[in-house]
């Protein structure tokens, strides 16, 4: 009878070991992860705030960034940084700098953006390439003020707006 008791105890221990091996990774996987980035930030064509291009309108990148600023908590923004290209990372760093300044230094490290990385920037209707460090310096000085600007509307929607 003692051999049967020892075998049952060994089987219980084995079952507990197997259960813990299954539960611990599942618990780690249950930690909140950043959802996938919207396409305009994942593969942003350029970094720009305000009206750009001809006809002047707010870019899909800026609209996506403003949406994330309203809906994503800081930890999701930081976790999602590695998904984006250089231009997308700058939009996200701008959001973090403005809305979550205590997380900015860590986010900048997480972004892994080399200082000399070329970034496409739209200034009005002029597309140019600047080094990432120059743009990071600018957003650090301004604390990403463009996020405080009202959302731009397209010229077409402004033209159809009723008079006030």
Account of the protein in words:
- Helix 5 (86-99) packs parallel to helix 7 (132-142).
- The strands form two sheets. The protein has a two-stranded antiparallel sheet with strand order 1-2. Strands 3-4 form a two-stranded antiparallel sheet.
- The protein is 55% helix and 10% strand.
- A hairpin with a 4-residue loop joins strand 1 and strand 2 (57-58).
- The chain has helices at 2-29, 39-42, 60-71, 74-80, 86-99, 104-111, 132-142, 155-160, and strands at 51-52, 57-58, 118-123, 126-131.
- By secondary structure, it is mainly alpha-helical.
- It folds into two domains: 1-31; 39-151, no CATH class.
Write the layout of secondary structure elements.
Elements: H1 2-29, H2 39-42, E1 51-52, E2 57-58, H3 60-71, H4 74-80, H5 86-99, H6 104-111, E3 118-123, E4 126-131, H7 132-142, H8 155-160
Antiparallel strand pairs: 1-2, 3-4
Helix pairs in contact: 3-5, 5-6, 5-7
Features:
164 residues, two-stranded antiparallel sheet, disordered C terminus, elongated, 4 strands, mainly alpha
């Amino acid at each position: 009878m003692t051999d049967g008791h020892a075998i049952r105890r060994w089987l219980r221990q084995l079952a507990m070991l197997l259960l813990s091996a299954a539960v611990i990774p599942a618990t780690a996987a249950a930690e909140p992860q950043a959802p996938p980035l919207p396409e305009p930030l994942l593969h942003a064509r350029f970094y720009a705030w305000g009206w750009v291009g001809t006809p002047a309108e707010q870019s899909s990148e800026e609209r996506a960034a403003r949406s994330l600023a309203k809906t994503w908590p800081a930890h999701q923004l930081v976790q999602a940084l590695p998904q984006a290209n250089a231009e997308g990372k700058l939009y996200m760093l701008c959001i973090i700098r403005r809305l979550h300044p205590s997380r900015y230094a860590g986010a900048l490290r997480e972004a892994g953006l080399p200082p000399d990385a070329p970034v496409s920037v739209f200034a009005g209707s002029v597309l140019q390439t600047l080094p990432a460090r120059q743009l990071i310096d600018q957003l650090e000085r301004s604390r990403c003020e463009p996020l405080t600007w009202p959302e731009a509307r397209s010229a077409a929607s402004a033209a159809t707006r009723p008079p006030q």
